Amino acid sequence: MARKVIVLGEIRDKALRNVSFEAIAAAKVLANGGEVVGILIGEKAANLASDMIAYGADRVVVAENEKFKHYTPDGYAQALMAVIEEEKPEGIVFGHTSLGKDLSPKIAAKLNAGLVSDVTAIEADGDNITFIRPIYSGKAFEKRVVTEGIMLATVRPNNIAPLEKNEERTGKVASISVEIKDLRTIVKDVVRKAAEGVDLSEAKVIIAGGRGVKSAEGFKPLQELAEVLGGAVGASRGACDAGYCDYSMQIGQTGKVVTPDLYIACGISGAIQHLAGMSNSKVIVAINKDPEANIFKVADYGIVGDLFDVVPMLTEEFKKLKVLSF
Prior knowledge:
Blueprint: E1 5-9, E2 11-12, E3 15-16, H1 18-31, E4 36-42, H2 49-54, E5 59-64, H3 73-87, E6 91-95, H4 98-111, E7 115-119, E8 121-125, E9 128-135, E10 140-144, E11 151-155, E12 172-175, E13 205-209, H5 220-229, E14 232-235, H6 237-241, E15 262-266, H7 272-278, E16 283-288, E17 301-304, H8 307-325
Parallel strand pairs: 1-4, 1-6, 4-5, 5-12, 6-11, 7-11, 13-14, 13-15, 15-16, 16-17
Antiparallel strand pairs: 2-3, 8-9, 9-10
């Protein structure tokens, strides 16, 4: 059975986040040959419609309003509900991001529908769709099936590969006028504490530091390695609690959940709370002076040594490899 599925494109810094394209790929599976409609909500969002079409959306609906300059749950919910009422989709896909985790349950409640969150894979067997998501801090996976009503899901970044970009694809772009009423939240300004550079939740390479970095200065070698590899720098809760870095960098059960292609843990002991946020990384490298550290139990590769000796050596070797590759 072909379905109509809508995908919310998430905009950050006037560009679409990569998880938006991953959500389109997920929507293609749910649509089962049906139509995938991209949704853009923003102050000036229409110029990003071509990107959604290039990555697989069949057409795009744009809701533009000066009140959408910053995300607010009330404003976005009103816009998205207006689109839902007009399009009448059988499925809705969000990214499992701060925005998606906030907005999706609000929409599900308005539709009196179920929500499958933090999806890492989708299986299709004819008309039957099965969502796979981690439970118990990633120690196990469960399968969920939506038996009736609209299928709502959020997809975890870096788990469902986006379709290959095809800039020759064409599709209709339409605008929808939304009257925004009774906003209970008004964002005056956004002050970001996160470091500039690659978004931690979408990074393909992450260099993370724990208490073993010893100070804020101790993160400098990690930042240099991340720059060489085109990655992002993260941290354990211990490093954040010690004041070595901002909590926006925290990875773990009470921080961000990440699934990069490469995760290099530097001076991280491997507490269960931290493992819950990174254990599903594709390749894990652990650097620690303690050969009995718990992090080695989940690592694919382990280096027993002082991170302040090992990390600079890795940085230099990767620099050589980059030169040779050119």
